[in-house]
Structures are given as structure tokens and as C-alpha cells.
Write a structure and sequence with these properties.
This protein is an all-beta fold and 133 residues long. 0% of the residues lie in helices and 38% in strands. It contains no helices and eight strands. A three-stranded antiparallel β-sheet has the order 3-4-7, with no helix packed on it. Strands 6-5-8 form a three-stranded antiparallel β-sheet, with no helix packed on it. Strands 1-2 form a two-stranded antiparallel ribbon. The protein is rod-shaped, with a radius of gyration of 24 Å.
């Protein structure tokens, strides 16, 4: 069986014995095994996706990043903010530049709440994932 980095459902296969020599009798002809998915997964959700901008310098928006699958290694994921929709936020809404950064997970860690330092976040995009082996 060849490994991959594709998140997929459990797959099963069987091995069947046939035509034993010298009059041997097959008591159990078939055995079944399962290939379990061991790939890491990540998902992001906005904790407070709609709120007024207010009069303060910063209105925090919090996002939760959840890690599943194989979490035995440390890993990182990049994030980047961009405008979206009919009236998208722009770089001026964030002090002249869309925020971006890296969220780090320790081995075994499955949940992070990240609060980019800027204001009107329309979308926080997971760009890439790296894993230490």
C-alpha cells in the first residue's frame, strides 16, 4: 500500500487464498483489512464574523483553526486576509496592508484561536500547511 497526503475515507481490501496444494483444506479463505486515513486536516471558522466597526482603533475578529487527523507532529499554517463580496474590505481598512502570518501548532495540539491585529476581516484564508516529521 502506498501512502499519500490526500484526506479520504477509510478504504478496505481483502486477501483471498485459493487452490491449496497437497489436499490442504482452506478453513478461512478470506481476510479483510482497512486502510485508515492518517492525514492531517485543518479547518477555520469565524467566532464573531459580523460586528460593528465601532470607534476604537481596532475591532478584533477571532477565528478558530481546528486541526484533525494525524496530529503527532508539529505543524504550521499560513494565513492571509483579503476582501470579499460586493463591498469588500481593502488594505486601507487594515492600516494600509492586509494582515498575514503563521499559526504554529505543537505536536498533539488541535485548536488555535487567532486574532489578527487588524479590523474588518472579510476572509481569512489558509494558504499552506507544513509539517515537521
Amino acid at each position: 500500500m502506498n501512502g499519500d497526503e490526500i484526506n479520504e475515507a477509510i478504504k478496505t481490501f481483502s486477501v483471498t487464498l485459493a487452490n491449496p496444494a497437497n489436499g490442504e483444506v482452506l478453513v478461512t479463505e478470506t481476510a479483510t483489512a482497512a486502510i485508515l486515513n492518517d492525514d492531517a486536516t485543518m479547518a477555520i471558522a469565524a467566532v464573531n464574523s459580523r460586528q460593528p466597526e465601532g470607534n476604537a482603533e481596532v475591532t478584533p475578529y477571532t477565528f478558530t483553526i481546528t486541526r484533525g487527523g494525524d496530529v503527532n507532529s508539529a505543524t504550521t499554517v499560513n494565513y492571509a486576509v483579503s476582501g470579499r463580496g460586493l463591498n469588500p474590505a481593502d488594505e486601507a481598512d487594515f492600516g494600509g496592508q492586509f494582515p498575514s502570518g503563521v499559526v504554529e501548532f505543537a505536536a498533539g495540539e488541535t485548536l488555535k484561536s487567532d486574532q489578527p491585529e487588524s479590523i474588518q476581516i472579510d476572509r481569512l484564508l489558509l494558504k499552506s500547511v507544513t509539517t515537521e516529521n
